[in-house]
Amino acid sequence: MGKFIFDPLTGEPTILATERAKRPEETAKAGTMSVTDHVCYFCKGNEHLTPPATYKDQEDWHVRVIKNKYPIVEDHEVIIHSPDHDKDLEDLDHEQVVRVIRAYLNRANFYGSQEKEVFIFNNRGKKAGASLVHPHSQIIALKGFPGILQSEKEWSIRYYDEKNTCYWCDEISEVLAGKDRVILETSHFVVFVPKACRWSYEIRITPKTHRPSLVFIDETEINNFAGVLQKVVQAYGNAFNYPDRNFWIHTERFDPFHWHVGFLPHLKVFGAIELGAGIWVSDKATPEDAAKLLRENI
């Protein structure tokens, strides 16, 4: 289990989690490694090789959640997207993606009942930090998150105190007024490239309805969100031949926060300017050009 340490100069958090070095690793991507080549811990029939399920949608499961055998923190779970070893989000049918989102909600509600915040994330491919091929997401829960999540939380409070409105509500109003950074607009979500994107082709998905947490969305929004997730990963796939990628969900239990999703494809290697100076260089396209390309590929 990991231990937090904080840089005394910058206050930046690091988790020491050396046990994770023992994780099994696969180098192939989903769809390129047959289940006969190795034993997959996440495939149906191998449940005895993993910790017991903390959630499954039914006994003959479509989605299964287990404790991570190599946790970063104490509350760290794996959400197995489906029994199918080779199908990622873009390959699953719509109802299966809905099941995955319901698993997100179940676990966020579970930890929320313990007054914990959650960070839900998905890694696809080795460059994105995935060690196992079988498609899955992860969730970690803490009493409070340092780093970016804490900064966003504090910023949302300051912004509300100064302007009596929500930063993310204002952001999507600005984005929709200009349209040139919009990739997709649905009845419930806006998908766009942030003005100050840190990586080229970084995407943000923001719900139109102000809610601090993902757990408050209704069935209509769940269905809409499932469709949006699939369209985004398909757009990356069409534009860049299914690159390694990450997405994460920023969600808090209380106002004035506004939950949202970040997406990024791994199209470059970070250099000293990013890692040493903390200055992000988005060098492949302007936000407007990136949005245009992804619109054309959605």
Summarize the structure.
29% of the residues lie in helices and 21% in strands. With 298 residues, it is of the alpha+beta class. Belongs to the galactose-1-phosphate uridylyltransferase type 1 family.
Main sheet summary: 10 strands, antiparallel
Average pLDDT number: 91
Regions with little confidence, pLDDT below 50 for 5+ residues? 28-36
Domains (count): 2
Describe this structure in words.
It is a single chain. This protein is an alpha+beta fold. The chain folds into 2 domains: 3-142, HIT family, subunit A (2-Layer Sandwich), CATH 3.30.428; 166-296, HIT family, subunit A (2-Layer Sandwich), CATH 3.30.428. It contains 6 helices and 12 strands. The protein has helices spanning 94-112, 148-163, 167-178, 219-240, 272-277, 287-296; strands at 3-6, 13-16, 53-56, 64-67, 75-80, 117-124, 136-142, 182-185, 189-192, 203-207, 245-250, 260-265. It has a 10-stranded antiparallel sheet with strand order 3-4-5-7-6-11-12-10-9-8, with helices on both faces. Helix 1 (94-112) packs across helix 4 (219-240) and helix 4 (219-240) packs across helix 6 (287-296). The relative contact order is 0.13.
